[in-house]
User: Fold these one by one.
Assistant:
Number 1:
Amino acid sequence: MFRFNPNRKAVEKGFLFTIGLLTVVAVLPLFYILYTVTLKGLPVILKRGTIFFTGTFSEGGIGPAIAGTFLLTFLSSLIGVPLALMVGMYSYENPRSVLGRWTKALLEIMMEFPTILVGIFVMAVLVIPMGTYSAMAGAFALVIILLPYVAVYTHEAMRGIPFTYKEAGYALGLTRIKVLFRILAPMAKRGVLTGVLIGIAKAAGETAPLLFTAGGLYESYPTSITKPVGTIPLLIYQLIQSPSPQDHATAWGASLVLMVIFIAVFIPLRMSLKEVKL
Amino acid sequence: MNFAIETVDLNVYYGKNHVIKDVNLQIPEKGIFALMGPSGCGKSTMLRTFNRILELKEDTRVEGEVRLFGKNVYSPEVDPIEVRRQVGMVFQYPNPFPHMTIYENVAIGLKLNGLVKSKEDLDERVEWALKKAALWDEVKDRLNDYPRNLSGGQKQRLVIARALAMKPKILLMDEPTANIDPVGTAKIEELLLELKEDYTIVLVTHLPAQAARASDYVGFLYLGELIEAGPTRKVFESPEHELTEKYITGALG
Amino acid sequence: MEVMRKLDVFDIVSFPVILVIFLLFAGMLFVFFKNALPALEHFGIDLYIKNIWQAASVPQKEVYGIAAALWGSFYTSLIAILISLPISAAFSVFIVDYAPRGLKNTLAILSDVMAGLPTIIYGIWGAFILVPFLRHWVMEPLYRYFSFIPFIHYPPVGGYSYFSAGVLLAIMITPFVSAIIREAYQMIPFTYREAAYAVGATKFEATRILLGYIKPAMVSGIILGFGRAVGETIAVSLVIGNTFNLTYKLFAPGYTISSLIANQFGNAFLYTYMTSTLFAAGLALFAIGLTVNIIGIHMLRRWEKNVQV
């Protein structure tokens, strides 16, 4: 009655093998990338020593780019995070109104939007009128990049709080602002903080929106937000296109720095969470 | 006679559902008023009109009046936030804020409403509220702990302390013992008997036995209508309405 | 019938912020339209359907048609999806059905690391490692033995090509597409699994049935993955070869809209119509991105709702 079908058995084995193989194929590139970037970047950094982190470009370092990355990330979070928290709160408070639903939809669209378009938009409205690339323009572009992440995470984190705590807050005679920001937001701080960190990580790693906004500055440290500034990703992009092997070496070193920063922020964050939206 | 709470032709709608129907109820000052009825009869909804917390839920509509000490809280010039400061509330699920310490939980209403002048005043008021809620002796050595290690009954008394700290005249209690073990329940009922000397307590319950044990007055709500209300002994000994009799004898869900 | 609530401080503070966000979006649309207009008026529909890029110092001699870049965006994204879909599906099935607990979590984390890794890292790795690798191990052997097949009939000289861009994009979107498929696959109610095995299906057959069940989610994964691929700029511009080349031949260098913008925008101001042309290209990308994402997100939400009920 239970007839053994060798053909079916073979298909089954082939299926399991294929699934396993494709899984390996899916994650293999990551290891290849980690391996290559370390292999090519580490000797560069070791050879040049601390000058790589602090020196200007002609000294063989990427100091100004590191400073620029921090500057732009800082500026964009300073403006973007409060705005995003407000937007996330708004869409949490108005889940059924037309404007609330549109806000949520807009945020989701912004998350998926081609980032190069943000770059040339900011170029048109800020760089051309000002007549120069600037840290300000770069930061503005990054605000648009990080805002939807922070807002969507805030919304989701707030939505996870049981309704009874909201009632308890209002029952104490508190205003909406106080219930939202002093009671509920601290309760959801893990989720909100995750969103903030992911937004910042995204902003720090972006290249395309900075191409025509930040400009680039590698021979001296940034001093003004109305002047051009460089960042690590932007520098790498420009160096890859150079024919000089020396520049390529710097690019690999810079890539390793960027990768280490990303992994140092991202892995602990991801380990403490169930799932993330990227 | 002056009533603590009085409803006049109160109607509540959830969207198109008519959940409270023409209720006229008087709750006297001081003492415990039990609002009883089977699950889903509208008791919790009605309770939430007394401090206008119902409007947190979307798509609700209230018609008629709710008067606290003679003043209609639904009249247009009334700010619901002011109403809520004078009315304390305790919930079915013991919900002290999990991210605040025991001390902060009691202090939060005072602090955020700016009702105390100094740290000493605040300490004093927190101690007073915790004593009033019969919790002080159990937590005085761990005021800076988080409430997660408290028992259900202790959590609920912490919530009572949080409400009392605001010095309300009225305490609304939405099935406060529904999620508490029998020992904790007995303690809370005992506490209510003490508190009723100073406060008007509205106790929502689906257990006729609890209403009989703990209350001075009782109202029976069935499918959104107020069937009967009056002194507890009278209602339980000689109910006027057949439905009330069925309910208190357990013949009704 | 909602109760009109009185405006409170929160409304007063949050409303302007919401307004700013919407104005920003409307502003973007406006800026793209306004800046694209001169080129659209000058070249008409030819701008989108012709393949020509003739920059000149005299405006009368300037002629632009971005058909090759439009095609490139579509073609590379299509290649990426075709490669990524089976990998993503298998990866999801493996994580949900076969991986032991510890490995499950590790694989999910690795996948998220891949999704979040700065794109410039993919770019440098793609340009210096992946392209030579593909040229040596895939493109050259295929060209040597199978060049009679039209798709392959192009000498892989530099290796920078539609194919390389497609492969790199496939690697980049796989964590994203697989996250959508995985979530849907996990959400399948247990009774369906039981039912599949109860009728005597093998693992292979059961998986096929279950994947059929989440087809709408897979389709939205494909659409959203496609959207990501179309929008990706930096990595693609480093491996595609940046050449106007309207062809289906896999190993030929090409352009995509985003790589065209990245590559040409910097010096476009030297010419009369080039900036405007690039904004028109951006407008097309805007339209594609918007359509694709709205459809994809909408489908995903609808599917999630259906499953939850």
Number 2:
Amino acid sequence: MTAQGRSDLAIETSGLSKRFASHAAVDAIDLAVPSGSVFGFLGPNGSGKTTTIRMLLGLATASDGWMRVLGVDLPGRLSSVLPRVGALVEGPAFYPFLSGAANLSRLDSADRYAPRSTRRQRVDRALERVGLTHAAHKKVHAYSLGMKQRLGIANALLSPRELLVLDEPTNGLDPQGTREVRSLVASLAGEGTTVFVSSHLLSEIEQMCTHAAVMSAGRLMAQGTLDELRRAGRVHARLQTPDAATAREILTARGLTVESAGTLDDTVVATLPDAASPDSVAAEDIVAALVRGGVRVRGFSIDGASLEDRFVELTGEGFDVAE
Amino acid sequence: MSPNEGLSQRQLDERRGRPSAGWALLASELTVLYRRRRTWAMLAALAAVPVLIAVAVRVTSSSAPGRGPQFLDQITHNGLFVGITALLVSIPLFLPLTVGVVAGDTIAGEASHGTLRYLLIAPAGRIRLLLIKYIGAGVFCITATLAVVVAGTLIGMALFPVGPVTLLSGDAIGVGESFVRLLAIAAFVTVSLLGLCAIGLFISTLTDVPVGAMAATIVLAVVSQVLDQIPQLDWLHPWLLSHYWLDFADLLRQPIAWASFGDNALLQLGYIAVFGALAYGRFVTKDVLS
């Protein structure tokens, strides 16, 4: 396969797969993460997010496909890419018997491109950025989960990075910490760093990211800017009326897909045709048609496709996830 | 190579300058090793062996010649033999035990802490990390042996008279040269343990459970010694890891017979080459999923 790299992509994969025995944890995904974006990597637990990240960082070998990070083919020239990438993978991990600052110094000394002369200064700066200066010399076994998470993020910030890969960065953080992470990500993105954030929490992605990709059961279901993802979702009309049966007939006749009767007798939910298709109907025309047909309308609303609906649509709901 | 790749490499060089030689990671490795309480507990336990021997001999002061470990009956005449006796006692179990703990912990310990993935993405480089881990374990071998010898010499000098040492060849050497011989014996024992270190390093790449790697390493050291005791297997003996472990008596002759030192070094080198290659083969392709 010829690798046609695009220079405006920070991460690019094609047909990237990882199989464990017969089970495909990651199944032929084609990721395209634009440089400078804050890219949300969204999916339920066990959908292959972390396995993908492990492959991108050279921790696991891909079973198939190719990948390119910061314009460099992997895993061939991994050692020239990794110094430019900061990462938090599957939770923070530190030596419990060393202090926070000593842990960072140790990991920094593993990077041959990180100058020794500025090590202490960079460690202090990274600790300051995540608000851990006061606990810098405490042993990590005395840290709370949230403090360890902050230390993990500090580790990713030890050197100036072109790409940050943050796997579930707000795990274990209180609401205050979550907000701090969000503003940290925003300020890093403002400096031109591409941030690749994985999460199973949609709200987090919605608040932080400019782009997103949705994973489900090892497959990439969709990717693009948040607006593109929202637009691809279907718009629903929700109607409250005592004349539900008549309303269903009229809506079906106008080309709407009426959902099977809900739990409430007086509520009808219908999916509007794609806005781009010729069958598209304006919401006000629907109401006019209903009224003409003698339906007494008590309430009518259009639920613009939320990202959440889109997410559930793509990944399945409840027990479907296991399939 | 596309122009894009060349550009990114140049950008990288401009931004970060040339990479350092990377000795900082070795310094950090040794700091972490010697900042652990476990390391000091093991060294203290090793240092306790000669102290126990010396105190026992001093208190009873009636050791019948020919009973107990070699050189034991010499201690009352010359305190310099405490260190040698303690090494003889420690070689079969205590030293392999502590070395097994450190060598078995090398990779598996990092994996169980989860720090292995962070070292690799730092990036430490897999081959470099393996080398540094091995050097760290080797340095521990030196300190472990020295802990026995130094503690033995100090307690021997404190509790017993010290004078010229009569060698196995009948010659007597002064106290100064005796120290040189002691260090030569310590070097012999350290070299003896380097093969075991390589085995421990390899086993450590196989698992994420450090205790398992430690136990397996120690068991192999014991099995090797048991096999060495079975006369029916004498064809196997020269290949056994522990075959020369107790053969440092040649260093107590005048002039020193270096043959057993050389044979031992060659054998250990063979173990380092084989298990080092196995560890390399395993670790370089390993998926780090811990």
